[in-house]
């Protein structure tokens, strides 16, 4: 009896150990993740923050090996690599994929529309999150927005831009289809350059000016060395969103609990990123001023003209693509709804007050 009992106990212990090993092996997913940003661009910190947080929160279930942009493949290839499952995940800025669908553009940024808090509100409570899933879902991916930066720096270059009149004939590095259309109506011409090419383009006079990111990111990219003038505000990108593309099959292999942990990490990173980038922007601005950069502020009249043209461009784009229209319709509906509270809370409101918005009726007519 003793022998049988001992054998049974030994067998039971072995079975429990084997089951535990099998459970661990089954639950442990190994992901490779890269990003569009190389190590020398500070935006990579947002991607790293999320990956490290996931490894802390869900390390028993999924481990992410994070690789800087360009170490596995060119940044332009991460969309296709994630879609096909060559890698499980990649950090991005949605606007880079506007060639696949123009709807990616407002998911990334807006011209003279949303600020950072608007994106946070819209994503979390006004239907934005679902639209990211709808757009990226067409390409076999789940999307977790996890980074928000407020308005970008503006244009930097070797000649001052003090008013809209100074844009006439200027060749300016600018990202985004809608942004380029607005610039062209203002008299300038859009030049498309990768972030790593901007420094030399300004230095050699290939462009008259350029935008890239927030002041903190711009300063660390060395733009103070080649650009004496800085035109503000950054109307072309009134806020920006970053996130992670996840291959659908890789996502489906995770338990619902693990998926929730990845979402929690994204929400935490999104809140952190907004405060982090504002601190970095403040410190970057101080350093630009210390280096002698001259800041030129556009007038209220100029900003009103930019808004007028922006509204026309948004409606134009909406009428060219139904999904583009759907995203902008949701954004403008949010602004109109939120105005019921926002406008009575001035001057402590968290979103800018504007009565001049793109026409919902015109957008609806094109949907």
Descriptive overview:
With 367 residues, this protein is α/β, with parallel strands linked by helices. It is built from 14 helices and 11 strands. It has helices at residues 2-27, 44-58, 78-84, 104-108, 116-125, 128-137, 177-185, 198-203, 215-220, 248-252, 256-290, 300-318, 322-342, 360-366, and strands spanning 29-35, 62-66, 89-92, 141-152, 155-157, 171-173, 189-191, 209-210, 229-232, 234-247, 294-297. Strands 7-6-8-5-9-11 form a 6-stranded mixed sheet. The longest helix is centred in the last third of the chain and has 35 residues, at 256-290. It is globular, with a radius of gyration of 24 Å.
How much of the sequence lies in strands comes to 15-25%
Strand order of the largest sheet: 7-6-8-5-9-11
Radius of gyration: 24 Å
N-to-C order of helices and strands: HEHEHEHHHEEEHEHEHEEHHEHHH
Helix residue percentage: 40-55%
What is the strand tally?
11
User: Helix/strand-derived class?
Assistant: alpha/beta
Identify low-pLDDT runs: 1-27
| Alpha carbon gap, first and last residue | 79 Å
What overall geometry do the principal axes of the alpha carbons give? Answer: globular
Tally of separate helices: 14
Average pLDDT score: 92
Instruction: Note the main sheet.
Output: 6 strands, mixed
Short description:
The chain is α/β, with parallel strands linked by helices. It is built from 14 helices and 11 strands. Helices cover 49% and strands 17% of the residues.
């Amino acid at each position: 009896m003793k022998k049988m009992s001992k054998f049974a106990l030994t067998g039971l212990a072995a079975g429990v150990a084997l089951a535990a090993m099998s459970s661990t092996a089954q639950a442990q997913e190994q992901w490779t993740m890269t990003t569009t940003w190389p190590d020398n661009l500070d935006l990579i910190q947002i991607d790293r923050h999320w990956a490290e947080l996931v490894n802390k929160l869900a390390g028993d279930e999924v481990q992410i090996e994070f690789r800087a942009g360009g170490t596995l493949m060119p940044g332009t290839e991460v969309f296709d690599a994630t879609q096909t499952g060559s890698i499980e995940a990649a950090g991005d800025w949605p606007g880079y994929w506007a060639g696949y669908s123009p709807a990616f553009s407002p998911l990334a940024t807006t011209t003279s529309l949303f600020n950072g808090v608007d994106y946070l509100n819209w994503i979390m409570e006004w239907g934005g999150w679902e639209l990211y899933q709808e757009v990226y879902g067409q390409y076999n991916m789940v999307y977790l927005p996890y980074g928000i930066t407020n308005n970008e720096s503006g244009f930097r270059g070797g000649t001052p831009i003090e008013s809209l009149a100074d844009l006439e004939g200027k060749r300016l590095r600018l990202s985004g289809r809608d942004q380029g259309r607005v610039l062209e109506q203002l008299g300038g011409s859009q030049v498309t350059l990768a972030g790593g090419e901007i420094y030399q383009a300004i230095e050699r006079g290939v462009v008259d000016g350029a935008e890239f990111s927030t002041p903190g990111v711009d300063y660390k990219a060395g733009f103070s060395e080649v650009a004496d003038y800085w035109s503000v505000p950054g109307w072309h990108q009134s806020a920006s969103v970053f996130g992670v593309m996840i291959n659908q099959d890789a996502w489906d292999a995770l338990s619902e609990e693990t998926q929730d942990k990845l979402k929690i990490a994204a929400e935490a990173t999104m809140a952190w990123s907004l405060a982090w980038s504002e601190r970095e922007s403040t410190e970057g601005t101080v350093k630009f001023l210390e280096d002698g950069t001259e800041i030129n502020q556009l007038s209220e009249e100029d900003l009103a003209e930019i808004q007028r043209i922006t509204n026309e461009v948004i409606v134009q784009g909406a009428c060219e693509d139904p999904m583009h229209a759907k995203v902008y319709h949701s954004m403008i509906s949010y602004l109109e709804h939120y105005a019921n509270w926002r406008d009575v809370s001035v001057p402590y409101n968290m979103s800018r007050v504007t009565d001049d918005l793109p026409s919902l009726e015109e957008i609806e007519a094109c949907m």
